[in-house]
Amino acid sequence: MKKIALLALLPLTLGSCGLFGTPKTPSINGSITGTAPTVPAGSAIKIAVVGLTATGIVNDTPGQVTGFNNTKYSTDYPSNPSDGRYIVVAFVDKNNDGKFNLGETSTSLTDTNHYLVYSKNGDANLKYGVGWNYVKDGTPSQPLIITDYDLKW
Q1: Where are the domains of the chain?
Q2: CA neighbor of 37 nearest in space, from 95, 104, 101
Q3: Beta strand 84-92 with 65-68: parallel, antiparallel or unpaired?
Q4: Contact yes or no for 84/57 (Cβ under 8 A)
Q5: Phi, psi of 6 (to 5 degrees)
Q6: Less Cβ crowding at N or C end of the chain, within 10 Å?
Q7: pLDDT, tens digit (0-9, with 9 covering 90-100), for 57-73
Q8: Confidence (pLDDT) at 75
Q9: Three-state SS for 103?
Q10: 133, 144 contact by CB (below 8 A)
């Protein structure tokens, strides 16, 4: 009888993991430092995860702000990314299209201290695992939640 009671509690125990801090959704979090730009009336500061290519910026994930308060932000990983390198930017969405457009005021596009790499198959030579990789100071890792992807105006 005790075994049945213990087995009955197993789904509740596993289900409560989400209630007590076990992450369900991967996310990218950080601080934004420096002097924020003036935001024109009707515009807003937004966060985007954008792809970098040899020819420029590819905006795979427009306007995916989860949380933002001028000094801290939280956003999700893109849901259907292509293989490649990505960065997180805060930007002033001057034309209110919900996308980062080159020419809009943004945090640095050239910060090479940290960036994201998505790899469908992984890359043993570059030490990238399958899926999302966070590269900080040249070292790749695969955290479910990034807490230190800091941006600077």
Answers
A1: 22-112
A2: 104
A3: unpaired
A4: no
A5: -65, -40
A6: N
A7: 665 554 455 556 668 88
A8: 87
A9: coil
A10: no
Residue with token string 């702000």: 65
Encoding tokens for residue 53? 């290519």
Q: What is the rounded CA–CA span in Å between residue 70 and residue 33?
A: 9
Residue closest to 138 by CA, chosen among 117, 118, 153, 119: 117
- Residues 21-54 have pLDDT tens digits of 444 566 899 999 988 888 888 888 888 888 887 6
Q: 85 with 51: CB under 8 angstroms?
A: yes
Q: Which residues, in sequence order, are CB contacts of 153 under 8 Å at separation 6+?
A: 32, 33, 34, 35, 36, 37, 90, 107
> How many C-alpha atoms does 152 have within 13 Å on its Cβ side?
6
Neighbours of 58 (CB within 10 A): 14
Class of residue 110 by CB neighbours under 10 A (exposed 0-12, middle 13-18, buried 19+): exposed
Helix and strand totals (H; E) in the chain: 1, 11
Q: What value does the CA radius of gyration of the chain take, rounded to a whole number of Å?
A: 19
Q: What share of the chain is helix, strand, coil (3-state, %, to 5)?
A: 10, 40, 45
